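During the no-cost extension, the postdoctoral fellow (Dr. R.K.) reprocessed legacy sequence entries with the updated structure-token encoder. One reprocessed record is reproduced below for audit purposes.
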Amino acid sequence: MANDIGVSILNSMGANTFDVNTISKTLAEADVSARRNILENNETKYNSQLTGYDTLGLAFDGFMSQISTLTDIANFQKKTVISSDSSVIDATVTGSPNNGSYQVEVQSLATSHTLASQTEFASTSSVVGEGTLTFNVGGAVTNIAIDATNNTLSGIQQAVNDAGIGVNATVVNVGTGYKLMFSSAQSGAGNTIDVSITGDTDGNDTDAAGLSRLATANMDETVAAQDATVVVNGLTITNSGNTIDGVIEGISLNLKSSDIGSTKTIEIQNDTADLSQAVQDFVDLYNALDEIFNNLGSSETDEEDETMGSLNGDSVLREVKYQIRNAMIESIPGLTGSVQSLADIGIKSELDGTLSLDTSMLDSAIANNPEAVGKLFSASATATDNQVTYMGSTDETLEGTFNLTVNTAASQAQIAGASIGVGGDITIDGTNNVLKVAVDGNTTLDLQLTQGTYTRADLAKEMARVINNDSTVAGAGAKVAVEYDDATQTYTMTSNKYGSASSLELVSGSFLTSGVSGLGVTAQTTGTDVQGFLENTDGTLYTFVGQGQDVTINSILDGSPKGLELKIEGTTTGARGTVEFNRGYADRLGMLFDDMMDEDTGIIGNRMSNVQDRLDDVEEQKVKVDERYDALELKYRIQFGALQTLLSEMESTRQSLAAMLTSTNNSDN
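Re-encoded structure tokens follow.
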């Protein structure tokens, strides 16, 4: 290097002058070149390491995104329903049904009551009349005022639809004119429409003129209100709608068409379509990780692959490989039955650290018990109480076994009436048929029970029908059940919702004040949320207050099952057994990858942060080296500039003296 610098300097010097710029740059570069080379080498090394760590992070993300099916236990609990004739009936899974086969005959579909005006009108703007339309829709009564602002065919249509009373009004062009059609929003025999008129401005509320043309007597019933009738395994069920819940637990039956005398089959099976492939992907991706580790740790490099060898000799890479393989070796506690390890489903570890899969063993295990296979991969909890169900967890939920105690069981809002005494049937007439209640904060319209004589059990059904058909209650998804107890001669009304959000209020009505039901006006009750605690093996308590039957542990204590979600059903209080939470292999790897990449504590994330700090320091040092170079170059420019000036002056003196000597010599001659 010194010889090169010397040659550069010599080449820049002439007989009397030299190149100040070249000499200054050459000397300044000689001073900083060694330091600059070190910094550039470090920069290359650190960037290479970051590339390697980034590759690991991307590999982890790709791994987890492609095995997401395995990290959710719900995917191993899925059910599918197969109908032998989906044009007549099919079904939807709504809960956790048991496998089974059901024979179903659809005898009739539910229909919505439809009335059409007998009178044809010339146009949609034709005036019908003025007065008050009173709709009784399945027992819910509403008055709609018709005046000069809405007395046309289209105006009445708009007024009825805007009222939200469970009636759809439509103006229909029948070719020779227009008719107004009323259809009940809900199907079923109990959802009939009855229209009456008061205050018709023509002075007659029942004739076929004016507004009374829309009274039920002056309209045609184009579709009768009808319940669906279906026979399931020999049991006949009627329902107001064509979607029937509760007949088969966890299944909603969807009736499409009637087919009297023909039996269809509904088959409930495990839905395992994607599980075998998901496990195969897990094995393949795990082995692909091993290839990535080998590439990153290679002693060779490749100009076309900047990742190859980027972590050669790096202790972090060795530790990452060790932790991943160790996570796959550790057993998962709490597993029972025929599936307790990866080997039980055909996954084995080879001598080189890769995994192999026996697909026949896997398929057999999935077919026999898919949920057991799921517990090998997913986060899950097992409760000894079959009324306690695992619903979910978070990354913060720690594994462990906890004793469960319920201090307060979740309950529904419920009103129990007074005994109405021993007696026979109950007659409902115009003096005791009005009922108004509030369900979960949703107040009904004035409801009218259908007049007639009822058995006590049938009256309970009528009460439930008119309440559940109310547009406000149904629109909010609320519902009640009403039952009669022969032993106590009492009616009980219960909301279908659990918890403090569940409420019932008997607001008003002649049905309540008459005492025929034993239910009293303004009676109000509220449900309760489940409350209790989980207890760790060291005696630490984690208390909870649920929402209805649903519980999420929100403890801030270390070692807690924070984020554990449970559904606690039943009325039993006190000790309710144990809940054991564990993480399967796929979930554990996801947690491990996240921990490794954590910037503060992760073995990779922390190292990346440190390497980035070193890179930042290299950049700072490079700036300082550049500043030193600039300073040295300037100094050398000044020094050699001064030297060149001095040499120029000396050359001028030399030339002057030479001239003088030449002149003297000439004189002497």
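The two ends are 56 Å apart (CA to CA). The longest strand covers residues 574-583. The remaining legacy entries will be reprocessed before the final report is submitted.
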